[in-house]
Design a protein that fits this description.
300 residues; alpha/beta; Nucleotidyltransferase, domain 5; 2 domains; five-stranded mixed sheet; 10 helices; 42% helix; 11% strand; elongated; IS3 family transposase
Length: 300
């Protein structure tokens, strides 16, 4: 009788609430199944963030959903937002700004060749910019060259100064990584590094057209600024407590993960390496969102 008492109690309670015992146990099963589903999703999120530590929720949804499709686990974007919010795994955007451009110099400045230009293939337009990384007792400066079509980082250099040599090193790496022989436009701000004789000479020797922003408008080089932000925000590179050489190694590893693993909504959710192999106009799958969870904003 003692063993049957719990079952009898459940049966009475179910009748009181107008439910069957089957419905009660079915509810328990669904709850257990939901907890297992949450655990599987969270484990996949943590695995992805080992290489992409601050990847935003929308791209996580795309990657995790594809991984779990074979396990017949489906979930929506809002479900993932709520799940990550509950476990405090949403990414907070950080807005910081340091000036790395000095356009008040005597060297020649070039016109903006990108106005009205449609980017339709890889290695049609390269965009360049410099960003800063705070080290323990100094600053480090990261020069990047990004392909405007695929968002692939073609070349980079990390130095302890803002001299033109860093930009030249990044450009030489980009030239070595070229996969196509078609013409290129190189676009940058009007900083002295990009106007220097050695930098301009290297571009001209490789028959690369030179384009620059006009009137100091940051939106004219928005793509380069965006890639800077992704590398610093999603890979925790606003600052580094490591030494210069260790930080340089970390940057190299982060750029490799960015090129090989991170999908871009503006490139039909392809990684930069995948997009760089395409030859047609890529679908843009991003939208403007204005949703916050506990004052956190997920990175698109």
């Amino acid at each position: 009788m003692k063993q049957d008492f719990p079952k009898l109690g459940i049966a009475v309670l179910c009748r009181l609430f107008g439910k069957t015992r089957h419905a009660y146990y079915d509810c328990l099963w669904r709850k257990e199944s939901s907890l297992v589903k949450e655990d599987v999703i969270l484990q996949e999120v943590l695995n992805i963030r080992k290489d992409l530590p601050r990847l935003g929720t929308r791209k996580l949804h795309y990657l995790v959903q594809n991984k779990l499709m074979s396990h017949q686990i489906a979930f929506g974007r809002d479900y993932l937002f709520d799940l990550l919010s509950e476990h405090k795994l949403l990414i907070r955007q950080r807005k910081r700004k340091a000036i790395t451009t000095d356009s008040r110099h005597w060297m020649r400045k070039y016109s903006n060749l990108l106005k009205g230009l449609a980017v339709t293939r890889p290695e049609q337009v390269w965009v360049s910019d410099i960003t800063y990384i705070r080290l323990t007792n100094q600053w480090g400066y990261l020069s990047l060259i990004t392909d405007a079509y695929s968002r692939k980082i073609m070349g980079y250099s990390f130095r302890q100064d803002l001299a033109a040599e860093g930009c030249i090193e990044a450009l030489k790496m980009a030239l070595n990584n070229r996969q196509y022989g078609q013409s290129i436009i190189h676009h940058s701000d009007r900083g002295s590094q990009y106007c220097s004789h050695n930098y301009v000479d290297l571009l001209m020797k490789n028959n690369i057209a030179i384009s620059m922003t006009e009137n100091g408008d940051p939106y004219e080089n928005a793509l380069a600024e965006r890639v800077n932000g992704i590398i610093k925000t999603e890979f925790n590179l606003y600052s580094s407590s490591l030494g210069f050489d260790q930080t340089k190694h970390r940057i190299s590893k982060s750029i490799k993960s960015y090129n090989e693993l991170r999908p871009h909504a503006s490139c039909d959710y392809l990684t930069p390496n995948q997009a760089h192999l395409q030859s047609e106009i890529l679908n843009k799958r991003w939208k403007n969102y204005n949703r916050s969870f506990n004052h956190e904003k997920a990175i698109v």
